[in-house]
Amino acid sequence: MSPVIGVVILVGIVAILAATIGVFALGFSEQQPTQAPQVAIVADYSERTTGNGEYLNLSFSSGETVYRDTLTVVVSGAKSSDGSDVTLASDPIRAQASTRITSGTQITIHRGQFTGIGSGEHLDLGDATLWLVWNPVDEPASETYVIYRWPDPSQRN
């Protein structure tokens, strides 16, 4: 075997090794997609029009432990009984849940958490949509996941 052929084979082996190492180094350094926690939530919706009006109880019935600081409640379409839009002003999760949310945790969405409800008016959630949004601690704020939606779109009239 001539020295030229030996050098060509050696260069080929080095190129293949470098490519293999590059694929492993770059391929394994990429982060795997974050998996949102799996939780089962039971909603109990009251349509009462007396007192403070309608409310929604969310009961975590099973699933993974979720940390309170990673969850946000978003509500749209909530109204006062006079038809005016209202805004969720306080965070029901931070006010009602412990640091670790597990099976048995219950959160209530009610009139006292909204602004824009006049005296003598009550909360109307009939056309509202609620999302429970999870933002993983190790992800940028733009990486959020809806882990629960009420009502289920298939059940909306």
Automatic annotation (TrEMBL):
Keyword Transmembrane: yes
InterPro entries per record: Flagellin/pilin_N_arc, Pilin_N_archaeal
Signal peptide limits: none
NCBIfam families in alphabetical order: arch_flag_Nterm
Domain Archaeal Type IV pilin N-terminal: 2-79
Pfam families attached to this UniProt entry: Pilin_N
KW Transmembrane (keyword) present: yes
Keywords in alphabetical order: Membrane, Transmembrane, Transmembrane helix
Transmembrane domains' residue ranges: 6-28
Protein name: Archaeal Type IV pilin N-terminal domain-containing protein
Species the sequence originates in: Haloarcula japonica (strain ATCC 49778 / DSM 6131 / JCM 7785 / NBRC 101032 / NCIMB 13157 / TR-1)
